[in-house]
Design a protein that fits this description.
Order of helices and strands: HHEEH
Helix content: 55-70%
Number of helices: 3
Number of strands: 2
Shape: elongated
Low-confidence stretches: none
Number of domains: 1
Strand order of the largest sheet: 1-2
Structural class: mainly alpha
Strand content: 5-15%
């Protein structure tokens, strides 16, 4: 299970946000785990990363519907 900070990084990637150097360790972990890939200076979500974001979004929406 990903940490909330890692999910936020995936969200940032999907929105083409630039990253500070302090997130390099998290980025490397997400690449190694197959959630994203790096192509030159660009980061891109893999299908696995997209699936995780969709799951988190669905859970958040369901929780919002309950309140």
């Amino acid at each position: 299970m990903l940490k909330e900070q890692q999910v936020q990084i995936l969200r940032d990637i999907s929105q083409s946000i630039a990253f500070a150097d302090d997130k390099t360790g998290q980025l490397d972990a997400l690449i190694l785990e197959g959630y994203m890939k790096k192509d030159g200076d660009l980061f891109e979500l893999t299908p696995k990363g997209v699936m995780v974001l969709e799951e988190y979004t669905n859970v958040a929406l369901q929780q919002g519907e309950r309140t």
